Amino acid sequence: MNRCAEAAAVAATVPGSGVGDSGLRPPMVPRQASFFPPPVPNPFVQQTRISAARRLQKEELWIRLERVMMARQEEDVTTEDTVRWIDTKAEDADKMILLGIILLPVRALLVGLVLLLAWPFAVISTVCCPKKLTHPISDWRRKITQPALKFLGRAMFFSMGFRVTVKGKVASPLEAPIFVVAPHSTFFDGIACVVAGLPSLVSRNENAQTPLVGRLLRALQPVLVSRVDPDSRKNTINEIKKRAMSGGEWPQILVFPEGTCTNRSCLITFKPGAFIPGVPVQPVLLRYPNKLDTVTWTWQGYTFIQLCVLTFCQLFTKVEVEFMPVQAPSEEERNDPVLFASRVRNLMAEALEIPVTDHTYEDCRLMISAGQLTLPMEAGLVEFTKISRKLKLDWDGIRKHLDEYASIASSAKGGRIGIEEFAEYLKLPVSDVLRQLFALFDRNNDGSIDFREYVIGLAVLCNPANTEDIIQVAFKLFDVDEDGYITEEEFCTILQASLGVPDLNVSGLFREIAQGDSVSYEEFKSFALKHPEYAKIFTTYLDLQTCHVFSLPEDVQTAPSVASNKVSPESHEEGTSGKKVD
C-alpha cells in the first residue's frame, strides 16, 4: 500500500468522515445572541407605495359593493341606488384628482413666494458676516430677523398643507443647549427646526453655497461640515462643544443623530457628536400619522420631486412634534458619549414604540455598492455599527467582502448563496463536511447565506482558523511523502477522505493553487490566505481525527499514528491553539 492510500485508509476510519461508519462529530458552534438578525431588516426602503394604496382602495370598494348588493337583495334596494352609490364613489375619486391639479400649482407658488419674502431678512441677518461664523450674530440683527423668519417658516409649511401638532414644552438654551430629533425620515423634518424656534443646524458646507436656500441656512448660524477637510470631524465636534457650553450666547443646536433618512420603522445607531459635549439634551420625536405616506425620503423609494408633488396634492398632511423631558448625562455618560447616546435612543424608541437596530450611514454606502455589483441593494445591509465593533472590521474590509460575496451570489436568486453556489465557489461537491460548514454560515437556518451571515462567518469561523500554524498543519496533511511539495495525487487523496467523497475530482481546484505540477508551501499559503473558507474545512478534518482518537481505548490512543504525515492529535493541539469560537 503506497503512502497516499495509507493516509486515505486512516482518514476513512474517522467517524463522521462520510467514508466509514457514522459516529461522533464535533459539536456545532453555539450562536451568539448579539449576532441575531435585526428586527427590521431594511430601514432604508420606503414601505408604502402609491400603487399598493390604490390596490387597497380598490379592494375596499369591491367589498363595499358586495355589501350593497347583499343589502339590495335583503332590503329590496333598487339597482338605481346601487348605481348612484358607485357614481358617488367615482365622483369622490375625480374630486381627489381635481384637488391635486388645483393644489399643486397653488402650493408651489405659495412656497416660492414665502422663500422670496424670507430672503431679505436672511440677507439682513448675514450681511458682512463670514460664511463660517466665529462669533454669534449680533442681538439687534436677531431681534429684527428672527420673529419674521419664524413666522415665514410656519407660513411655508402651512402653505405646503402640513397640519402640525406640538406636544410638550420647548426647553430653554440653559436647560438644554442641544435638541436631538428622531426618527429622521424626510427633508420635511425641517418642521422641527421651525417649531423649536430656529436653532442652529449641522449642515454640509455645500448647502450654504446654494443660491437663496444657502442664504436662509446661513441665517440659522449653522455648524458647517466640510467633506474635503480631513480635520472636519474634529473641528465640528469642537464647534458643537463651544456653542453648547456658551451659556446661551449661541443659539441652541438641532441635530439629527441618525445621520441619514430611514422609513421610521426603527431607530438606527445614534452618532455620538451631539452627546460628546456632555451637556443636557432634549429629545424631539417626529410622527407622520397619515393613511398615505407621501413624505418618507429613503435610499430606495420616491425622489425629491415626486415626494413634493405627492405631498402638495394632499388636502393636508399631519405631523406631530413631541418635545420630551430634558435628559442630563450621568458622570459615566459624560465620559462615554456612546453610552449617553444609547440611553437617549432607547428612551425615544420606547416612546415611539419601535425597535432599535445597529444600522448606520455606512450600511447605505454598502447598499449602493451592492446595487453596483448587480445584487439587490438590501443585500449590503449588515448592521455596520455592531459588525465593525464586535468583529474589528472597517468599511473597506467589509466592502472587499462584498466583492467576494457578489462573485458567488451573482447567479443566485435574490442575491443569497445556496449550498449549490457555495459548493461551486469552493469547487467542491456537496458533502457532509461542506453541509456542516454551510450550516455554520447559515445563522438563521433558512437554507441560504446572506451577506451579513457571510461576513460574520468569515470573521468568526474562517479567519481565526486561517493562522500560520493551521496553514502549516494543513500543508503537512497534504504533503504525504514529506518532500515539501504537494502533488495532485496527494491533494486528491486527502481531500477525498476529508470530504467523504471517494470519487471526487479536484483537478480544477488543484490547478488554481499550483503554478506547475506540484504545490509549494508558499503557493499553498498564498491561496489559503486569499480563500479563508477552506481553513474551516481543514480544521474540521483535524477535529474529526481528534474526536476519533480520543474516543478510542487508551492503549490505542497512545499507539503511534499509522500515517507519518504528522497529522496527529499532538500537532493538532499545537496548531489550533487560540481558536476563536462564535
UniProtKB/TrEMBL annotation:
<feature type="transmembrane region" description="Helical">
    <location>
        <begin position="97"/>
        <end position="122"/>
    </location>
</feature>
<feature type="compositionally biased region" description="Polar residues">
    <location>
        <begin position="558"/>
        <end position="568"/>
    </location>
</feature>
<keyword id="KW-0594">Phospholipid biosynthesis</keyword>
<feature type="domain" description="EF-hand">
    <location>
        <begin position="466"/>
        <end position="501"/>
    </location>
</feature>
<feature type="region of interest" description="Disordered">
    <location>
        <begin position="558"/>
        <end position="582"/>
    </location>
</feature>
<keyword id="KW-0106">Calcium</keyword>
<keyword id="KW-1208">Phospholipid metabolism</keyword>
<keyword id="KW-0808">Transferase</keyword>
<dbReference type="InterPro" id="IPR002123">
    <property type="entry name" value="Plipid/glycerol_acylTrfase"/>
</dbReference>
<dbReference type="InterPro" id="IPR045252">
    <property type="entry name" value="LPCAT1-like"/>
</dbReference>
<dbReference type="InterPro" id="IPR002048">
    <property type="entry name" value="EF_hand_dom"/>
</dbReference>
<feature type="compositionally biased region" description="Basic and acidic residues">
    <location>
        <begin position="569"/>
        <end position="582"/>
    </location>
</feature>
<feature type="domain" description="EF-hand">
    <location>
        <begin position="429"/>
        <end position="464"/>
    </location>
</feature>
<keyword id="KW-0479">Metal-binding</keyword>
<dbReference type="InterPro" id="IPR018247">
    <property type="entry name" value="EF_Hand_1_Ca_BS"/>
</dbReference>
<comment type="similarity">
    <text>Belongs to the 1-acyl-sn-glycerol-3-phosphate acyltransferase family.</text>
</comment>
<protein>
    <submittedName>
        <fullName>Lysophosphatidylcholine acyltransferase 2</fullName>
    </submittedName>
</protein>
<keyword id="KW-0012">Acyltransferase</keyword>
<comment type="pathway">
    <text>Lipid metabolism; phospholipid metabolism.</text>
</comment>
<comment type="pathway">
    <text>Phospholipid metabolism.</text>
</comment>
<keyword id="KW-1133">Transmembrane helix</keyword>
<dbReference type="Pfam" id="PF01553">
    <property type="entry name" value="Acyltransferase"/>
</dbReference>
<dbReference type="Pfam" id="PF13499">
    <property type="entry name" value="EF-hand_7"/>
</dbReference>
<keyword id="KW-0472">Membrane</keyword>
<dbReference type="InterPro" id="IPR011992">
    <property type="entry name" value="EF-hand-dom_pair"/>
</dbReference>
<keyword id="KW-0812">Transmembrane</keyword>
<keyword id="KW-0443">Lipid metabolism</keyword>
<keyword id="KW-0444">Lipid biosynthesis</keyword>
